[in-house]
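assembly run, all chains below
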Amino acid sequence: MRLESLADGYRAVIFGASGGIGAAFVQQLRADARCARIYAGARKSASVAGDGVTAFGFDLMAEDSIAAAAQAIAADGPIDLVIVATGMLHSPSQQPEKTIRAVSAAALMTSYAINAVGPLLIAKHMLPLLAKERKAVFGALSARVSSISDNRSGGWHAYRASKAALNMLIRNAAIEARARNREAVLVGLHPGTVDTGMSRPFQAGVPADKLFTPAFAAQSLLGVIDGLTPADSGGLFAWDGQAIAF
Ligand SMILES: NC(=O)c1ccc[n+]([C@@H]2O[C@H](COP(=O)([O-])OP(=O)(O)OC[C@H]3O[C@@H](n4cnc5c(N)ncnc54)[C@H](OP(=O)(O)O)[C@@H]3O)[C@@H](O)[C@H]2O)c1
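ok done. output:
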């Protein structure tokens, strides 16, 4: 996948490079000769080290760690692409709620912290690093189920609501970013249903041709990113380039 719309020798940062989709983004970018440098961030940075990759550590729950990562990356010059591929649907202590009876304040707060607040803090520290006066993209992995108008099946309260909040925060940041760089594009991205640890417990009813490999999802989304223009900033886009209504 060649990202033709970014500057030749572009520099990219992936937050969540240890995840199924995040790791696939790093692999795809490594294969693009136009990409000069990839910064790959994870809680355990050693897990994402590799050729042509500068690994860094960060935790969404610790703003200092995000600020320190941004400061280190800033020393090398401007950034053309930031992808936030972190997120949480379930954990050993938290399952997506099938009913409002299963809702807990603690689970809601954790989901908001990881899926909405963390990505916004990354935006806070990374947007000043984006290149000016040329196309620069900040994309955060959201999900189709964040769409309020598309919600016909209910459930997954904390995940849906935290991703809907993420969409609003991206739209807000996009409006502000325009004043700094009219070429900047800030978007939410839906990867489709992808075979990773996140979706594994919920794949039973998914037809085989609708369950994507991480490589396919990352490649598709990089194609979408390549086609985005400033007019798309603030929106939510699926793996096939389709805009998703909020
Ligand atoms: N898979 C799907 O079908 C699907 C569908 C729609 C949307 N998405 C979205 O796509 C994104 C990537 O999902 P995935 O399937 O690749 O999930 P995944 O394999 O579970 O990866 C999640 C990533 O988030 C990171 N993360 C979680 N909490 C963190 C924290 N406190 N600090 C730093 N990093 C943290 C994980 O890091 P560790 O390795 O340290 O845990 C991991 O890198 C998510 O936003 C998800 O909501 C996925």
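The mean pLDDT is 96.

Residues 16, 18-22, 42-43, 59-61, 85-89, 114, 141, 143, 190-191, 193-194, 196-199 surround NAP (CB under 6 Å).

not gonna interpret more than that til we talk
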